[in-house]
Design a protein that fits this description.
Blueprint: H1 2-93
């Protein structure tokens, strides 16, 4: 009978050690999950900032394209004016 009690005590002790080890493992796992959650949150913030930067950049590119179109139109008008001026001066040169 004493041997059975001793064996049961040993089994209960092993179960207790297994529970403690499992608890420690779960705590380490929870810490890792928390660290990953912080990383994901940080990356989400970075992605949001990059989205804002992309929007600002696309707006700047659109403004630049509009300004370039205006410059092209002005150059076309200047070219036409210079061509008319050259045509006017051409008969006087000969």
């Amino acid at each position: 009978m004493e041997a059975r009690i001793s064996r049961l005590e040993s089994i209960v002790g092993q179960i207790g050690e297994a529970v403690l080890t499992t608890t420690e493992t779960i705590e380490r796992f929870a810490e890792r999950v928390d660290a990953l959650a912080v990383q994901v949150q940080h990356q989400g913030h970075q992605i949001q900032q990059q989205g804002y930067q992309i929007f600002a950049l696309s707006d700047a590119v659109q403004t630049l394209a509009e300004a370039q179109n205006g410059s092209i139109e002005e150059l076309e008008e200047l070219t036409k004016t210079l061509q008319r001026l050259a045509a006017t001066l051409e008969p006087n040169v000969h």
